[in-house]
């Protein structure tokens, strides 16, 4: 089986050809002993988590990135009625994500909720006393009260910060669960390939191989945070029209377009 790369007019022929070459590596990785062992451990952890929460007070967060898609797919077997929530800032939501969302409708046909917000029409509740934006965190706090633990797709190998989080807290806390924590980025792409899952076109936007698909991510466009490892240049190349449309908004402060 192979992944279903979602179409985007932003993709070039060189991008598609490079994607097809890298999928050969994903297919090979899906057969390795290490991948199969980590996958089995992840599935066992998910079953243990669900058994330990018989009240069903947990929900999955869906960003349409590779990790959240794999997380939702893995959780489906053990918790087919799990509530799934997609939180999006309308101002800089990735314009290719709705195509991925459509492809996932069969997977998300039950109990799927979308929460949208937009700082362009923000009121005082969007900021703390020091003027910092907090709407995202307020939404997460409300979801915790309503549904319980937040199931995320974070992995230890994503960054030093997330590696530290996993080492300190492990997979599970009272209000969170990270079932993919010990899977590698190569494991994630292998799982997508092996299960024929939809893949966001962002991961094929490699400039024909100039960027590493393993380091690309689905996230807000024009967000000053996380613009390292060439993110700024990558956004200019693939989403320059979005940056220009946004202008010098809240999310564009000190973001030299």
Quick structural summary:
The protein has 257 residues and is of the alpha/beta class.
How would you describe the overall organization of this protein?
This protein has helices at residues 13-29, 33-51, 66-78, 97-103, 135-147, 160-169, 185-194, 231-246; strands at residues 4-5, 58-61, 83-89, 112-117, 149-151, 172-173, 176-177, 198-199. It has 257 residues and is an alpha/beta fold. It has a six-stranded mixed sheet. It has a two-stranded parallel sheet with strand order 1-8. Helix 1 packs across helix 7 (185-194) and helix 3 (66-78) packs across helix 7.
Task: Report how far the terminal alpha carbons are from each other.
Answer: 41 Å
Mean pLDDT: 89
- SSE order, one letter for each helix or strand: EHHEHEHEHEHEEHEH
How many helices? The count is 8
The outline comes out as globular
How is the biggest beta sheet arranged?
Answer: 6 strands, mixed
Helix content: 40-55%
Radius of gyration: 18 Å
Strand order of the largest sheet: 4-3-2-5-7-6
Q: What is the β-strand count?
A: 8
Strand pairing plus helix content: what structural class? alpha/beta
Residue stretches low in confidence (pLDDT < 50, at least 5 long) are 250-257
Strand content: 5-15%
């Amino acid at each position: 089986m192979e992944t279903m790369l979602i179409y985007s007019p932003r993709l070039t022929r060189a991008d598609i050809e490079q994607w097809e070459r890298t999928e050969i590596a994903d297919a090979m990785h899906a057969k390795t002993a290490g991948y199969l062992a980590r996958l089995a451990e992840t599935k066992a952890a998910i079953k243990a988590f669900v058994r330990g929460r018989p009240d069903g007070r947990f929900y999955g967060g869906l960003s349409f990135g590779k990790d959240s898609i794999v997380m939702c797919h893995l959780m489906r077997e053990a918790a087919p009625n799990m509530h799934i929530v997609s939180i999006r800032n309308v101002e800089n939501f990735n314009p290719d994500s709705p195509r991925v969302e459509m492809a996932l409708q069969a997977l998300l046909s039950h109990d799927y909720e979308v929460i949208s917000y937009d700082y362009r029409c923000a009121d005082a509740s969007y900021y703390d006393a020091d003027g910092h934006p907090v709407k995202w965190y307020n939404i997460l706090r409300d979801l915790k009260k309503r549904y319980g633990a937040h199931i995320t797709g974070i992995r230890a190998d994503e960054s030093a910060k997330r590696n530290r989080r996993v080492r300190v807290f492990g997979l599970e806390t009272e209000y969170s669960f990270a079932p993919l924590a010990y899977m590698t980025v190569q494991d994630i792409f292998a799982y997508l390939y092996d299960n024929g899952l939809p893949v966001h076109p962002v991961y094929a936007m490699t400039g024909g191989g100039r960027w590493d698909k393993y380091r690309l991510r689905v996230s807000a466009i024009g967000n000053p945070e996380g613009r390292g490892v060439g993110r700024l240049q990558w956004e200019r190349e693939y989403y320059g029209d979005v940056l220009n449309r946004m202008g010098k908004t809240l999310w564009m402060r000190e973001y030299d377009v």
